[in-house]
Design goal:
The complex is a heteropentamer of chains A (411), B (296), C (328), D (234) and E (242). With 328 residues, chain C is mostly helical. In chain C, 76% of the residues lie in helices and 1% in strands. Chain E folds into 2 domains: 166 residues, Rossmann fold (3-Layer(aba) Sandwich); 68 residues. In chain E, a hairpin with a 2-residue loop joins strand 9 and strand 10. In chain E, helix 4 packs across helix 5. The chains are: A alpha/beta (411), B mainly alpha (296), C mainly alpha (328), D alpha/beta (234), E alpha/beta (242). Chains in contact: A-B, A-C, B-C, B-D, C-E, D-E. The complex binds adenosine-5'-triphosphate (2 copies) and magnesium ion (MG) (2 copies). Chain E: One of its GO terms (molecular function) is ATP binding.
Chain lengths: 411, 296, 328, 234, 242
């Protein structure tokens, strides 16, 4: 049962394979599933709406070959080789997470196949000199900077920043950059502590954090600890003017889990339903718009996934990675990975996910912008950057006591 | 100030520790009677957490009321697993049961993922907050503590005072000997396993009372690891010892934070774990069978 | 020791050769074959301790982890010397895991059964949190080497190291671990371990210096673990993260492999490793997303059918036949 | 009281019993004799249900109990003293005895049984609080018999009860056994101590290689060639 | 010089004095029987000699060396071997492996000669047909015979046997007694000390008998004399047997 996508009408069209090791089981299975659907949507668009990839006088249909990497680094390597050697795939969508991407990189590099990272945010992947590895999502260093910009612009008085985050390489990269950026903006870091993975109780840390009397808190790491952090801030009634948490708030499950405690909590997201990326916006910037519009994307996503679950940013990232290959292949008019890699250096386009442009030197994403979301009255609003925003920031956020009285972060 | 922190951290540690304790008792019980090392332990905690979550989300049943439901559900689950798999391995080498429990754990997680998806879910059940000097703590956590302590006490009484409890001990010591006394050895095995799983699933409810968020099908791994350590600290096969050890472990983990926080240039939270494990090793060196363990 | 006793290695060498040939000739099969070999090597190394002494070291992965760090540190510090950095790394990996095993052995091997098992979890976790807590060796950010290696050795060689050389070395390690096992089994040490595995007190009364043999097996096994960590992780993956290399999941997998094959046997870990690796890989290729749901019942059925492992069963069955010499 | 027909049993794939027929009359002592490895222990274990019979039937007290698990047999009044004692080593003498009276029927007669046991073995009364595992070999044997009596049995299967007992005590134990019979207990006895057991038995079977070789009243057996061959070493 | 010398050895368990100030000498090549009522301290005495317990008081001297505080595994190489009243085989190992382990570590043989030696011992004891059986599958009696073979394979100077013959039928007992006689005579150094409640075995075997009672040495002397002593009959035998 090879998982492939077949389109019947044009039997003459040649098939071009994209390949992906996906985390369908294990700790990243949530993200893996979203990524798969996102890729399938993009491919569907390429084949059915766009009419396949036109390279010279040939038209290619794109098909996806994917396997489950079980979020396991040993499996990833085997799968990359299988994709490259047995399935003849030249365009690989990298596995989820920085670690797995790094594990896959030497094999891809040696086989000379392209690898496009849609789930590995760490900057250092792109500091290792892998020519064939490029990035679609914004790197870790960008995650919390937008939030700080926002705070500075709405409340120049807020000075005291507390950082409390999970101790892993990703969060460290995020907060190292955020800390430096905060100082540049004139903030003072009054608290900077980590907690290990798998904690059940942050009270000792929060005790200390409260004593530092911060104005704003930035923190988090993954889903579980992000939820725990907010839940315990509420338990211990630690009130600040704004909170931005990595990763967790971007998912609907965050609000489901925390209810009104989530009101006013912010978080960075690679993408969010409702962002104002579209053909108009592209035209303003003078670049191409490529791929489905947001409405098309949502519609096709529903078809592909067969659920009512809205796409998360993982889906959009993955779709954008697929689209970037397609766009670059058409630009290069070649399916040779070297030519395509060359073309990727020069392209700049917009998709449902936003702008795509890489640094030619490292392959790192530099075109795409993070957005900041905030939970307001039970919905996720985009509050930053102003160009993408669909709501004003609610600042300062309601206190925990106010929220218990039923106050929401709406005016 | 440091003193304040220490007091409140110890308080939080005690609450946490009681939950750790109950979340270990089932593991200890199963090991004690059947010599089965349940490496799938955490997946049963997870099942309990989801039980509380769904009962609350779908039927608004307060988590505290889910405790008996989870116990019964867990016992049923344990019963089925024992009859289907473990029964056949009672006489097999000890470690082969470890393979089986590993596979069962994986199976439960993946089945759960199939049914419940891989989201991180949670709920909030607010019943107010206790303010006590420097301590601010929601009543749900106090409730988790009280419930844990009562459960542990009841289990202790059951084990030491009832006939069935004694029969279990007899089976542990000599199976054939128990049979000639008229004890149904198979029933004791089934019962102990089912009850061990039941207590574990039930502890999942307590865990969610304590931490009502971050409930996920893969949440169990951390509990397995910690339960192992606590079970040994308390003396394997001694559920009561497990409870006390859990309590100490919680105190130690949170309490040492205050002190380690004073060392510059380190991550105190990670070091609390380090210190807790050093504590374990030291205890074992002094008393090689744990705090409350008999001879091995 | 007579050569005759090495006969037991024949089926194993045969399998290794077949695997090598498949890996080298069938396109796309090299990495999968290496993936199977990772589990075989892991099982083979762990068996020297777990299988032969009956002691379970739940913290076994710490030795792989330390080996991985040994190699990483060597590459970081000696890459300017060229490729010698790799043998240096191998030596350092072995030294580091051996040192840890001596420390742990001296302290924890006094404990029995499950107490030992879990004390070693403490060692593994404790070590991880120590690294993270004190930010030693990069703390949670680990050590990322690919860029470094590519600069030092050039892209071609660096890729070659990670995608071929490390893999061949892994075959070698697996073979050496098996050879060591055979040698031990046929020496007095093998019998001493057999005795202590069954009844440590009785073995002591019979004049066996139990502690000495336990520690010897422990150190040997740890040294192989260090090699695997250095080769299959650092050299191959080109990075080391503490969370990855001190992950207890690998210990559990190693136990599963040894038990699946048959603890204390020579060929068991290979059979177990192959079964586990092949199933895990092909199920993920054929049934992506549900493979674990299939793998778990398969494991259960196997262990219920062969409680002493597949090889354990075969060995018992063939005990009085001609085949017996080839199966141990 | 007990009728065994065509009993076959074994371990793993190895068959040990090849069709054993036995009859034990109510209130009698029946002895099973035979060389080492003949299958005497296996016979008792199979009757009691510790090894499930492969074939054949077992009737106890007028009921078919062939496949009844051991604990159900104890409830019906059948129990066994195992070769190798199988006490609860970590528990005290007292606790061992309490567990002997585990079934409901036995619990009701707890006081009486305890008194009986303590008169038979005063040493046990002295050592009520000692852990069973630390008792001497002979003391453990006493406790094993005592524990069996605590189950308030109608019939006891005794596997080498005199093993490890000092000669003086052996004589006492045999006396006890015959006293118990006189009080109405039925006893199936396996012994190496042939002549002592034949002195108290009513009927005897000689087992060889998993089959009954001879059977008969005590006097018949005493004179049989089988007995001479095995026990006198002719 | 006696091979083994106990000087006022005492062992207490809580309030109970299991071995009460026992002094004893055993000569090279001697066949000594130890008898006494149940619980009189015979096994405890063996445990003290082999090092399972250490005495609370007194000294134990073996072959001129003070071994009072020596751990068990240091005593074996000196030539002390024993069997256990409740057998402790290496269960998953085969019978031959069990015995060979004795030869290897007790007698310092290399693997191959130990296996050869073990085969011989199995034959001597009469359980060679069980050679490749897993030890845990043996009956209690077979296990004790295997322990005897294992102890013999250790080529001890002194062999402590704890009720090896209980439950054995008379013809087998005779065979084992012959065997013990032979090793005692052929391998001159061997001293056998035996605890047994079977009087016909003791009378045939022992040259000298020690009777223990409540932890103390009740009487010691030539076998027939001791066994017909009225006090021995009173506390141990119950009636006259010889
Ligand atoms: N657990 C077991 N597994 C395999 N074989 C066994 C087991 N127990 C006994 N046997 C075998 O079964 C046969 C009969 O043994 P059984 O114990 O019934 O003999 P027995 O007549 O009681 O002898 P003894 O007088 O020595 O007690 C023997 O050959 C023995 O080796
Ligand atoms: N570890 C112990 N703790 C407490 N009491 C013990 C311990 N070991 C032995 N005893 C007691 O010491 C006494 C002597 O026991 P020992 O085993 O030496 O007797 P024995 O002479 O070998 O008797 P038997 O002939 O019945 O085997 C017994 O009363 C026994 O209960
Ligand atoms: Mg028998
Ligand atoms: Mg004794």
């Amino acid at each position: 049962a090879q998982q492939e996508q077949k389109s019947e009408e044009t039997p003459k069209a040649e098939v071009l394979y994209f390949g992906a090791p996906l985390s369908l089981s294990g700790k990243y299975s949530k993200e893996g599933q979203m990524s798969l659907w996102g890729m399938q949507v993009a491919i569907k668009w390429i084949n059915e709406v766009h009419g396949g990839l036109k390279v010279g006088d040939k038209v290619y249909k794109v098909e996806l070959k994917y396997y489950d990497d079980q979020s396991n680094k040993e499996v990833v390597q085997s799968l990359i080789q299988k994709l490259a050697d047995q399935d003849g795939v030249k365009f690989i969508l990298a596995p989820y997470s920085s670690g797995l991407t790094l594990a896959a990189a030497p094999i891809a590099d040696q086989r000379g196949v392209l690898m496009n990272s849609h789930g590995g945010a760490s900057d250092y992947i792109f500091e290792q000199g892998y020519h064939y590895v490029v990035q679609t999502l914004s790197p870790a260093s960008k995650y919390q900077t937008g939030f700080l910009d926002m705070v500075k612009s709405v409340d120049p008085e807020a000075k005291r920043v507390a950082m409390i985050y999970e101790d892993n390489e990703f969060s460290r990269a995020v907060f190292k950059a955020a800390g430096e950026y905060a100082k540049q903006l004139g903030f003072e870091i009054v608290f900077d502590k980590t907690y290990p993975k798998g904690v059940q109780d942050l009270s000792p840390l929060l005790n200390e954090l409260a004593a530092a009397k911060p104005d704003v808190i930035i923190g988090g790491g993954h889903f579980a600890d992000g939820q725990l952090l907010v839940s315990q801030l509420a338990d211990m009634k630690i009130n600040v003017k704004a909170v931005s948490i990595l990763v967790a708030p971007a998912l609907p499950a965050f609000y489901d889990a925390l209810g009104t405690k989530a009101e006013g909590v912010c978080g960075p997201a690679q993408w969010e339903i409702g962002v104002s990326y579209g053909p108009e916006a592209a035209k303003k910037l003078g670049i191409d718009y490529y791929g489905p519009t947001q409405d098309e994307f949502l519609k096709m996503f529903k078809e592909v996934s067969g659920t009512d679950e809205p796409p998360s940013y993982h889906a959009a990232e993955a779709a954008a990675a697929v689209l970037s290959y397609a766009y670059a292949i058409e630009k290069a008019q070649s399916t040779n990975p070297d030519d395509v890699r060359e073309a990727m250096n020069t392209i700049e386009f917009m998709s449902v996910y936003g702008v795509w442009k890489i640094d030619p030197e490292t392959g790192k994403q530099i075109g795409h912008e993070m957005v900041i979301i905030q939970w307001q009255g039970g919905t996720k609003k985009i509050i930053w950057p102003p160009e993408a925003a669909n709501a004003d920031p609610y600042y300062p956020m309601p206190t925990w006591e106010e929220k218990e009285q039923g106050k929401l972060a709406t005016k | 100030m440091v003193g304040d922190h220490l007091v409140s951290n110890l308080f939080y540690g005690a609450l946490l520790g009681s939950v750790y304790g109950v979340a270990t008792m089932g593991l200890s019980m199963i090991f004690g009677v059947l010599r089965i090392v349940n490496v799938g332990h955490g997946s049963f905690v997870m099942v309990g957490a989801f039980t509380a979550f769904w009962l609350f989300t779908l039927y608004s049943i307060a988590p505290i009321l889910s405790i008996p439901v989870a116990l019964i559900f867990g016992i049923a689950l344990g019963f089925v697993i024992f009859q289907a798999v473990m029964k056949k391995l009672v006489d097999a080498p000890e470690l082969s049961t470890l393979l089986a429990t590993f596979a069962i754990g994986v199976f439960i997680e993946e089945t759960a993922k199939f049914i419940w998806g891989s989201d991180y879910v949670g709920f909030s059940w607010d019943i107010g907050t206790l303010y006590l000097g420097s301590i601010t703590v929601p009543y749900t956590k106090i409730l988790a503590f009280v419930a844990s302590t009562i459960i542990a006490g009841l289990l202790y009484l059951w084990f030491t005072k009832t006939k069935l409890g004694k029969a279990i001990k007899a089976v542990v010591e000599d199976r054939d000997g128990a049979a000639v006394c008229g004890i149904d050895v198979n029933r004791i095995f089934t019962l102990s396993f089912a009850l061990g799983i039941g207590v574990t699933v039930m502890s999942g409810v307590l865990v969610t009372l304590f931490v009502p968020v971050g409930i996920n099908v893969y949440m169990g791994a951390d509990y397995t690891l910690r339960a192992f350590v606590i079970a040994v600290l308390g003396g394997l096969g001694s559920p009561w010892g497990a409870f006390i050890a859990g309590f100490l472990f919680g105190l130690f983990e949170n309490g040492s934070y205050t002190l380690l926080g004073m060392i510059p240039g380190v991550e105190p939270f990670a070091l609390t774990r380090f210190v807790a494990f050093v504590f374990l090793l030291v205890i074992l060196l002094v008393k090689p069978t744990g705090l409350f363990g008999g001879e091995e | 020791m007579q050569m005759g006793k090495l006969k037991a290695l024949v089926p194993m060498v045969l399998v290794y050769v077949i695997l090598l040939v498949i890996g080298l000739t069938v396109p796309g099969m090299w990495q999968p074959v290496v993936y199977f070999m990772f589990y075989v090597a892991l099982g083979q190394a762990f068996n020297i301790f777990l299988g032969l002494t009956g002691y379970v070291d739940f913290g076994y992965v710490a030795f792989l982890g330390l080996g991985a760090y040994g190699m990483a540190i060597a590459l970081q510090n000696f890459a300017h010397l060229g490729l010698v950095a790799i043998p240096i790394g191998i030596v350092l990996a072995v030294i580091m895991s051996v040192l840890l095993s001596m420390a742990v052995g001296a302290v924890a091997l006094r404990l029995r059964g499950a107490y030992f098992a879990i004390a070693t979890i403490g060692v593994n976790e404790g070590f991880r949190f120590l690294l993270v807590g004190t930010k030693l060796w990069g703390g949670s950010e680990g050590i990322v080497l690919s860029g470094f290696m590519r600069k030092a050795f050039g892209r071609e060689i660096a890729n070659y190291l990670s995608t071929f050389v490390s893999d061949l070395l892994l075959f070698l390690v697996a073979f050496l671990a098996a050879l060591t096992t055979v040698v031990i089994l046929n020496k007095k040490m093998g019998y001493a371990l057999l005795a202590l595995r069954e009844d440590e007190d009785a073995a002591r009364v019979m004049g066996i210096n139990v502690t000495k043999y336990k520690i010897m097996a422990f150190i040997t096994s740890a040294a192989f673990a260090g090699l695997i960590g250095a080769i299959a992780w650092t050299l191959k993956l080109t990075y080391v993260f503490p969370e990855d290399v001190f992950n207890i999941h690998y210990t559990v997998e190693a136990i599963v492999i040894v038990m699946l094959g048959g603890a204390g046997t020579l060929i068991g870990p290979m059979i177990g490793g192959l079964i586990y690796g092949v199933l895990k890989y092909y199920l993920s290729v054929i049934f992506p997303g549900v493979q674990l749901l299939i793998l778990a019942p398969l494991l259960i059925v196997t262990i219920v059918a062969f409680p002493e492992g597949v090889a354990g069963y075969l060995i018992k069955k063939t005990r009085n036949s001609k085949l017996a010499e080839y199966l141990r | 009281m007990l009728t065994v027909k065509e009993l076959e049993a074994g371990y793993g794939e190895m068959q040990v019993l090849w069709g054993v027929d036995l009859k034990v009359g109510k209130g009698t002592i029946t002895a099973i004799l035979g060389p080492n490895g003949a299958g005497k222990t296996t016979t008792l274990r199979a009757i009691f249900g510790l090894n499930s019979p492969w074939n054949g039937s077992i009737e106890f007290d007028g009921e078919d109990v062939t496949f009844l698990p051991p604990h159900r047999k104890v409830e019906k009044g059948l129990t066994m003293v195992l070769e190798g004692r199988h006490l609860f080593p970590g528990m005290t003498v007292e606790e061992n005895l309490e567990l002997g009276a585990y079934t409901k029927r036995a619990e009701e007669r707890f006081e009486d049984s305890l008194e009986l046991v303590f008169t038979l073995f005063p040493r046990l009364k002295e050592r009520k609080k000692q852990k069973a595992g630390t008792m001497s070999g002979g003391e453990q044997q006493m406790l094993a018999i005592a524990r069996a009596l605590m189950t308030a049995p109608k019939m006891i299967l005794l596997d080498e009860p005199s093993q490890g007992l000092a000669p003086k005590l052996v004589a006492e134990v045999f006396e006890t056994i015959s006293k118990l019979r006189d009080e109405g207990l039925t006893i199936l006895l396996v012994e190496q101590n042939v002549f002592a057991s034949l002195d108290i038995a009513d009927y005897a079977y000689v087992l060889g290689e998993g089959k009954v070789v001879t059977e008969g009243t005590v006097d018949e057996i005493k004179d049989s060639d089988e007995i001479k061959r095995v026990y006198v070493g002719v | 010089m006696p091979l083994l010398k106990l000087e006022n050895v005492t062992k207490r368990f809580g309030g109970l004095v299991a071995v009460d100030s026992i002094s004893l000498e055993v000569e090279e090549g001697e066949a000594l029987g130890i008898v006494g009522p149940n619980g009189s301290g015979k096994t405890t005495l063996y445990n003290l000699i082999s090092g399972v317990y250490y005495p609370d008081e007194g000294r134990i001297i073996f072959n001129g060396e003070d071994i009072t505080k020596l751990p068990p595994h240091r005593r074996t190489p000196l030539g002390l071997a024993r069997t256990f009243q409740i057998p402790r085989p290496f269960g998953s190992a085969t019978v031959i492996e069990n015995v060979a382990i004795g030869a290897m570590f007790g007698a310092g043989r290399d693997v191959d000669s130990a296996l050869r030696e073990a085969d011989e011992m199995l034959e001597l004891v009469g359980i060679d047909h069980l050679r490749d059986k897993e030890a845990k599958l043996l009956t209690p009696l077979e296990k004790r015979l295997m322990e005897l073979a294992r102890a013999l394979a250790m080529k001890p100077k002194m062999l402590l046997l704890d009720e090896v013959m209980a439950g054995m039928n008379p013809s087998d007992i005779n065979r084992i007694l012959d065997l013990l006689d032979r090793i005692r005579k052929e391998e001159k150094v061997a001293v056998v000390s035996m605890v047994e409640h079977l009087m016909h075995a003791i009378t045939r075997f022992a040259e000298r008998v020690v009777v223990m009672h409540q932890g103390k040495k009740l009487i010691e002397g030539e076998t027939y004399e001791v066994l017909s002593h009225p006090e021995v009959i009173e506390v141990y035998l119950g009636k006259k047997v010889v």
